[in-house]
Amino acid sequence: MPIRELPSHLVNQIAAGEVVERPASDVKELLENSLDAGASRVEVEIEAGGTRLIRVRDDGVGIPVDELPLALGRHATSKIDSLDDLTRIATLGFRGEALPSIASVSAFRIVSRQADAEAGCEISTADGQLGDSLPAAHPPGTTVEVRDLFARTPARRRFLRAERTEFQHVQATVERLALSRFATGFRLLHNRRVVLDLQPAMDRAQQERRIAEIAGSEFVSTALHIERDEAGMRLSGWICRPAAARAQPDLQHLFLNGRAIRDRVVTSAVRMAYRDVLYGGRFPAFILSLEMDPVRVDVNAHPAKLEVRFRDTGAVHDFIRRAIEAALSQTRPGGAADDVTTERTVHAGHPSPSAALFTTTPDVLRDAAARYADFVATRPAAESESRVNESVGFPLGTALAQLQGIYILAQTARGLVLVDMHAAHERVMYERLKAEAVAEKLASQPLLVPQLVGLTVREAELLEEYRPLLIRLGFEIDRTGPAAATVRALPATLPGVDVAGLLRDWLADWAESGASRRIEERMDAALSTAACHSAVRANRHLTVPEMNALLRAMESTDRADQCSHGRPTWIEVSIEDLDRLFLRGR
Ligand code: ADP
Ligand code: MG
Q1: Which end of the chain is more exposed for a tag (fewer CB within 10 A), N or C?
Q2: Atom of ligand 1 nearest to the CA of 110
Q3: What are the phi and psi torsion angles at 261 (to 5°)?
């Protein structure tokens, strides 16, 4: 065949292949136009999953009568004018492709009117041919109707799924846009039935109601709200508490300057922020909005504009990771992220026994316990009058007893708290170790009698290889035989640790993950293993003062709501819950 220029209709159909994959992608493009037009309300009507009809109506600025034919022209847009504009895009659209593409694969009609225009105006396509522009009645705003999508491109049509599936995609698209623009009201109808009716949501309570409708009330009630401004970037939104993480990455919304995007940099920053509070194999849920000067990001990197390129990837990664880490570090009993804030303020002025006192060594435990007893005894008499009174001050209350050698029962102002003592102690130890490891090296303490540890030859070799890491961790261990090592010093924080067990676990980890990674990347995992080995084991009897010492340590430990594997460390059963169980009217 000779080379020739393709007719514009065919060019549009080719472009449609990229832009409009299925009804949901049409809905996305049309709604984005409505949002760019400043609509305060939009309505989407769908029939037969979008294959029979897609109608999007908005109350935006409308299109001037003389420009309407242009809107259907290829590469025609009102949103950019120069290359310079392309580097600072603040609208969702800018490519000028959507309307001609959609019109080329459907029976299409657009009606629009500007608020101050005398009348509206419409254009339809028939058999792919653009009709004349005709006067039409319409309230201020724009309506676009797309009928019989892909009727004339059967190859595309064959790829469509069942009506229900296509509609689900449409609904997900509308919901995503609704989460990106709280100030706009959204209505969605399928086969004349109202599926979504979201009022404009101005304040946080209304926004959370919208989120609950879309993502479930479970997400909202367990989410942490975050808001952080720094170096010209702003991150705001909701992230799930670690214990509410999901089995699938199915609730992860990220908006960049109001545009839904998928981005590896951001995903990785979120994953890192959650790394040691997440239960194995779970995924965080989040609805996050990132804002920055459009100059700092290139949105012209993907035909459907789902991917972007940040100018300064490192700064974005860092900012997001730190913002989320800061929010998650507040997940501790009575932490700022907790709704029990009132209880916390009651005793805000009191010193609480330092978490640093609490270790597994029985002596140190007893010491912490004694200090706790002192602390309670020296509090003003009026406050320690009754135990209930006393417990009011502490989010985790006062310990009553140990259950089955596993749980601590405590009484709070609101009811009963159950603490998984090993999990809780593990987190306390882990956070302490991490805080200390920030310094060059954990402080170590020589053993009076060096301890010999039997290993396999392979383990002993690995041990030599990892000596620098062990020193950083506060251990002084030398290989003293083909299959033996001698421990001469332990970290001061872990005086009572079962060193042989810990060493074997570490060596097993390192053998499996290979020697290529840097020490820094191993630290957290190594410290988490150490914390596990140093935490109180099941069936270890704790006295009441020891239990209280653990509760106080938890309250002053970041992320104490979950152990280092992401499992919850404590739960509260309120008096109301108990009354309900016993059918007790109050
Ligand atoms: P783009 O959005 O990339 O500019 P489109 O093909 O989606 O390209 O739309 C072309 C032009 O038509 C837009 O630039 C805008 O001026 C106008 N337009 C489309 N939809 C609307 C609408 N709902 N309200 C107002 N103007 C619209
Ligand atoms: Mg557009």
Answers
A1: N
A2: 20
A3: -135, 160
574-585 pLDDT per residue, tens: 998 888 888 887
pLDDT at position 564 is 80
Q: Is 98 in the pocket of ligand 1 (CB under 6 A)?
A: yes
CA 217/CA 61 separation, integer angstroms: 35
Asked if residues 398 and 409 have their Cβ atoms less than 8 Å apart, the reply is: no
**pLDDT tens digits for range 436-480:** 887 777 888 898 889 999 888 888 988 988 888 888 888 999 999
CB-CB contact of 41 with 200 (8 Å):
yes
182 CB within 6 A, ligand 1: no
Q: How far is the CA of 406 from the centre of ligand 2 (A)?
A: 60
Residue 152 has a pLDDT of 74
Query: From ligand 1's centre to the CA of 77, what distance in Å?
Result: 6
Name the H helices within 225-361: 264-273, 313-329, 341-346
State the distance from the centre of ligand 2 to the C-alpha of 33, rounded, in angstroms.
5
CB 360 within 8 A of CB 536: yes
For the stretch 505-540, pLDDT in tens is 888 888 877 654 566 667 888 888 888 888 888 888
